[in-house]
Design brief:
2 copies of one chain form a homodimer.
Chain A (H helix, E strand, L loop, with lengths): L1 E5 L7 H13 L4 E5 L2 H10 L6 E3 L5 E3 L3 H25 L4 E5 L6 E3 L1 E2 L2 E5 L2 E5 L4 E2 L3 E2 L1 H9 L3 E5 L2 E3 L4 E2 L3 H12 L3 E6 L17 E3 H6 L8 H13 L4 E6 L5 H6 L4 E4 L4
Parallel strand pairs in A: 1-2, 1-15, 2-12, 5-12, 6-13, 15-17, 16-18
Antiparallel strand pairs in A: 3-4, 6-11, 7-10, 8-9, 13-14, 17-18
């Protein structure tokens, strides 16, 4: 069982990812795909006159401030345009894909965090009305039902709160939780960078291999969105996923190559 | 088994529909929900600078001309905003809903009609690049899998072509095909009108009961979108669905009331 997360940044080759997945699926590998849609959401939000707003928390994490209108735009792009785009591409290649968000069947459920702390001009402000949440529980029953029926699940944020509200959740953390829940052998986190870079953005500084204990020390290397990927990788390995690869989704055969170790390979490291 | 289709016009009370469905679901009735999103799609298309274009075919049917950009906007609103809105409202009420389009698992499949004939200023023009299709086959396997697992399917256009392309399909025809495929006892087609009106828009002229043979003669009564509802109703009854009700989704307890016969009741009429 492989869980593949593909980011939503520019430059990702959806056709190459899907062709590669179709080949693996045809060989009998069980696959779950999770995708993002960050860059496209920003463009649609701008076009609709509700531009994105990002906040930086006191611990240095950047996230999208998600008021109700932003959540609606987020759903349009993640669950509509982009999820159905992935499903269509896979169907076109003969893979019987089914696209779902975390609200559907309460696929990934957590707690809503209605307030968020934001550092602005050196001061910490509390912002209210945020629809952001955690991923605490994965509905493995529904995933098993689909996989058992011969369908490839294509999953996307948002998730759902315990109260049944849609909440923005981080796609990399979703991928880690899904990989842990289904007992995946491998989790691939593919995006528009080559992997974890010791000196971002210098791609010649790619870190090829890390153990969990090394990763903990080197979290500081991760810049921007890579921080959440590294956190997702740590969570997955701690939860028993054998191997996580931070790989490149801009290249040909991106899934097979990440499976073969191209990118940053993260393992538990008890040798 | 009940199949409920709710239109996408203004004035529909989503909360009332979902409360009513939650009650029926809690009593053990099996339900499949299908929804539209017409009015909201027009608004988003306007806001994104790609306003809707409608064409009237030589036989008097009006439909949305769906170029690829329109199809993307259509997916954003139908599969994103509106489908996840229905699922969220049902989840909030404790119903484990799962939202899917016709592309997902090839749930409803047909033929793409890439050209459409349009009557403009009395002349018939042929328009190319249309992503519109028919509904020829329903994937009952996936619906049974979900219903058997305790999930309420919430379905939305688009459908999928045999070649795996997303295609705009009419929601009422989808509802008829789904009701026939699952052997539903009743199909409810709820919208923002009271039913079939003999003198549209005079609601006091509501037609309370029709048999299939009467319906055939009175297709001329149906105006605008009601034409497709009447066609959907005819297809469903011809395919063995016991009863179709054209009912009102603007009122309290809209599902129970339509089940009780409020609206236009259409039956085979072999007495």
């Amino acid at each position: 069982m492989i869980v593949v997360k593909v980011g939503g940044g520019d430059g990702i080759d959806r056709g190459a990812v899907c062709s590669d997945l179709a080949k693996l699926w045809g060989e009998g590998r069980e696959v779950i795909l999770i995708h993002g849609a960050n860059a496209e959401t920003n463009r649609v939000a701008e076009a609709l006159g509700h531009p994105p707003r990002f906040v930086t928390s006191p611990n240095g994490m950047t996230s999208r401030f998600t008021d109700r209108r932003t959540l609606e735009i987020f759903e349009m792009v993640y669950c509509g345009l982009v999820n159905k785009g992935w499903v269509e591409t896979l169907q076109y290649l003969g893979v019987n894909a089914v696209g779902l968000s975390g609200i559907d069947g309460r696929l990934f459920e957590g707690r809503r965090k209605a307030t968020v702390r934001s550092v602005e001009k050196g001061k910490v402000k509390v912002l209210r009305g945020d629809y952001t949440g955690t991923v605490d529980r994965v509905n493995r029953h529904l995933l098993d039902l689909l996989l058992g029926g011969g369908y490839l699940p294509v999953l996307t944020p948002p998730g759902v709160s315990v109260d049944g509200e849609a909440v923005n959740v981080d796609g990399d953390r979703v991928a880690a939780a899904v990989a842990a829940a289904v007992g995946a052998d491998v989790l691939l986190l593919l995006s528009n960078v080559a992997g974890l870079l010791a000196r971002f953005p210098d791609e010649s500084s790619l870190v090829r291999h890390l153990t969990l204990s090394e990763l903990d020390q080197r979290l500081g290397w991760a810049q921007g969105r890579m921080k959440k990927k590294v956190l997702g990788a740590m969570e997955a390995v701690q939860a028993g996923v054998g191997r996580v690869v931070l790989g490149d989704a801009r290249i040909d055969r991106p899934v097979s190559r990440a499976l073969a170790g191209k990118g940053t390979v993260i393992e538990c490291g008890r040798e």
